[in-house]
Amino acid sequence: xxxxxxxxxxxxxxxxxxxxxxxxxxxxxxxxxxxxxxxxxxxxxxxxxxxxxxxxxxxxxxxxxxxxxxxxxxxxxxxxxxxxxxxxxxxxxxxxxxxxxxxxxxxxxxxxxxxxxxxxxxxxxxxxxxxxxxxxxxxxxxxxxxxxxxxxxxxxxxx
Amino acid sequence: xxxxxxxxxxxxxxxxxxxxxxxxxxxxxxxxxxxxxxxxxxxxxxxxxxxxxxxxxxxxxxxxxxxxxxxxxxxxxxxxxxxxxxxxxxxxxxxxxxxxxxxxxxxxxxxxxxxxxxxxxxxxxxxxxxxxxxxxxxxxxxxxxxxxxxxxxxxxxxxxxxxxxxxxxxxxxx
Lengths: 159, 174
Hints:
A: mainly alpha; B: 11 helices; transmembrane (chain A)
């Protein structure tokens, strides 16, 4: 899909300005070459993460988790795991049916989305170590806040 | 060449261990390799196109345009642009990072690119649709209502605490 879009866009731009478009594509190709090692590293980490932090493992560990321990476990697994939305949310649905609290689900999905150990090679390459660490730590804190807010809304937590 | 080889050290180790695992007939090696192969194919399906588009973006889009809408002088609307761009981002954060770096190089302010990355993590439309249908619309609504403001606040905070030296790294790579 995205290749068709890229091809169509390239064709249009090529008609408007040939020289500029070729220059753009050359920059793009250079970026592909330059970034392939970091992306390869990420794919390796993803391969390990998918194997060791599998759906079954998450079901098993979060299946009966609750309270602060559950949230911590969910946040930890969410940070380590790598899965696209179409895998993660059906899994979250199963967890809900098994009686796992929304608070724990929120901690898991939010860290899954925001905190990325497996995307570390790519993030570090583009943003440097310091920004990467700060962003991930802030995201971890945010996930806890979101999880508490969700817990309050669903009446699972009381203050 | 040696420099290139150095970039691939993890891949080389991975190949050696996987090969050893296959010889010893370990299930783990097979499992990890299957994941590697299938995710590699997934990535090939769109990541190269993303980089080509970034290349075209760098040549075709004027620095003034980005500076005006997403730069230091930009106002509240810039966050809206960041969120719209983020919600339509394909893939995951690994796509948002190079896009954010390209925007920064074109003059977008740090707080805007951090807002973009943050919202790209939490607001991508396809993902959100899955969330709303499996976990519930109100779950998604609260999550957005809480996390989007938090992302923006933390982005402004990050811009304040980071030194120019830390930010320089962003344009170094691209």
